[in-house]
Amino acid sequence: MAAGAGGAKPATQSRMENFRKVRTSEEESPLPFPDLPPDVVEMKVKEGSKIRNLMNFAMAQMELKGSRQIVFSGCGRAVTKTITCVEIMKRKLGGLHQVTKVRYKTLLEVWENQDPLPGSPAQNLTVHKNVPSICILLSRDPLDPNQTGYQPPEPRPGLGTQLSEAEGTSSSSAKGLKRPLPPPHQEPLTKKVQVEAPDSPRGSGTTTRQLH
Q1: Are strands 41-44 and 124-139 parallel, antiparallel or unpaired?
Q2: C-beta neighbour count of 32 within 10 angstroms
Q3: C-alpha dist (Å) from residue 183 to 173, 179, 180, 186
Q4: Phi first, then psi: what are they for 43, rounded to 5°?
């Protein structure tokens, strides 16, 4: 008896299993950046968005159409993908000023009852969820460095490597100049040796010879 009661599911859980999420929408809210031009492009990154498609469109706006600013935004599980898109654009273009704003957005989820009661209309359930959201502004033009979330442009890729190679070349040249010079050629010294010659009929004496 107890085992059978323990295996039964609560009535609320059993009813919720009959619902399926059919639609998700974001609550519209203005961008958190003042003084944006009215035609600024906003890239709304979704969880299922393809990064390649997003970057192709964004790069066309910045390079071909000459846009000076662009905004990437995403919420929930799309936050990480939003940051990835921003980093790719910063590496490709370089010299971009950045302002990052983090806030919360409301998602509206609509759930539909898949097993309605006979003779009753289909029942929908709307759920409001607050999820973290991120908005990142990239600009070719300088931005206010005192505002919260500002990041200055990063050095262009390859500049640090070139400087390191230049420093390494200078260091090698300096080391080459500091090599010790070979010792100067020394002339052999002339030694004088006195040799006493044996007594001869002509008399005794001392002979001096120079050895090289």
Answers
A1: unpaired
A2: 17
A3: 22, 12, 9, 9
A4: -95, 105
Query: What span, in angstroms and rounded, lies between the C-alpha atoms of 103 and 96?
Result: 23
Structure tokens at 97: 């000023």
Report the C-alpha dihedral over residues 27, 36, 143, 161, rounded to 10 degrees. 70
Count CB-CB contacts under 10 A for residue 93. 17
How distant is the alpha carbon of residue 75 from its chain centre? Answer: 20
The two structure tokens encoding residue 29: 């809210």
Q: Could you tell me which residues come within 8 angstroms of residue 182 by beta carbon, excluding any fewer than 6 positions away?
A: none
Q: Could you give the residue ranges of the DSSP H alpha helices within the chain? A: 2-7, 11-16, 51-59, 79-93, 159-177
One-letter amino acid of 60? A
Would you state the pLDDT for residue 193?
Answer: 46
Rounded percentage of the chain residues whose pLDDT exceeds 90: 45
- Render pLDDT for 113-130 as a digit per residue (tens, 0 to 9): 887 777 777 778 889 999
Under 8 Å between Cβ of 55 and 85: yes
Amino acid at residue number 138: L
Q: What is the 3-state secondary structure (H, E, C) of 120-156?
A: CCCCEEEEEEEEEEEEEEEECCCCCCCCCCEECCCCC
Q: What is the pTM of this model?
A: 0.63
C-alpha 203/C-alpha 212 separation (Å) is 29
